[in-house]
Amino acid sequence: MNPHFVLVHGAGHGAWCWFKLLNLLHSAGHHATALDLTGAGVDPTKLEEVTSIHHHAHPLMNFIEALPQQQKVILVGHSFGGLIISLAMEAFPHRILVAVFVTAYMPHFLSPPATLVQRFFNTLSPENLLDCQFLFGDDPEMPNSVVFGHNFTTQKLYADCSNQDLELGKLLMRPFKMFFEDLKRESILTEAKFGSVDRVFVVCEGDEVMNSEFQRLMIQEFPPKAVKCINGGGHMVMLSKPTQLFQHLIQIGESFNSTNECDHQTFISPQLN
Predict the structure, then answer these.
(1) 199-205/96-102 β-pairing
(2) CA dist., res. 37 & res. 174, Å (int)
(3) DSSP-based helix, strand, coil % in the chain, nearest 5
(4) Pick the catalytic residue: 9, 182, 207, 240?
(5) Active-site residue 56, yes or no?
(6) Alpha-carbon span 190 to 185, nearest angstrom
(7) List of the chain residues with pLDDT < 70
């Protein structure tokens, strides 16, 4: 049985941002699904009604649980979606063929994911964030929720996208929660479960949101099985460079599917492609 690609959006976005990649995957005969997380995309849940990161991730967990037991999935997480697929790796380690982090948070089981998020925010300056709006709770250094501003969206988030994709994003993006308190929990990710799942990282050079230096730092500190690279696509690479991302995903799927059939006797070394 061929693996099922499951695409998980980042903060403020929804399943809609994968429409180009979904078309490529379906046209090539692959099983692929993009999900709206709770409180995102066209999901009707209001932001204030999303109670936790696990509530946010519920559609992904339900989808994987409902698949046939023999069906393996290739999880693809973009940006903040890297944290969401990490929760699925912890919950369903034996159902996941490989997890692909596309310019995404890739946490380590040795420390809570909040540590990684905090380190990323520490690299940012007000000039990086432009007109984003933040709502803070008890922690004055980490926002509870964020709204992407017009200038940030235009100059950073969608800098390498077409005007049509930019307008689509401006119409459909929603405010989002950071779930920092949930991500502080020590046992949220474990070596035995999350750490047992194979990972691939897709570096996006020229990303104005999560810069390539931070991406490579995560790779260095928690090396995945393989690293791919896309140049000139910026942060929203599924919109700006869908064909390149599609080609990488197909290569990843073929490599790990054949590896799985050989009882994981093949090891793919981390290298830039």
Answers:
(1) parallel
(2) 12
(3) 40, 15, 40
(4) 207
(5) no
(6) 11
(7) 259, 261-273
Specify whether 255 is catalytic.
no
Question: Which member of 86, 235, 240, 248 is catalytic?
Answer: 235
pLDDT tens-digit profile of 24-40? 999 999 999 999 999 99
The one catalytic residue among 79, 86, 145, 240: 79
CB neighbour list of residue 86: distance below 8 Å, 6 or more residues apart: 77, 99, 105, 106, 107, 113, 189, 194
Residue 126 pLDDT? 83
Predicted local confidence at residue 268, as pLDDT: 40
79-to-27, 114, 259 alpha-carbon distances in Å? 25, 14, 27
Distances (CA, A) of 142 to 15, 18, 106, 181: 26, 28, 19, 10
Whether 138 is catalytic is no
- pTM above threshold 0.85: yes
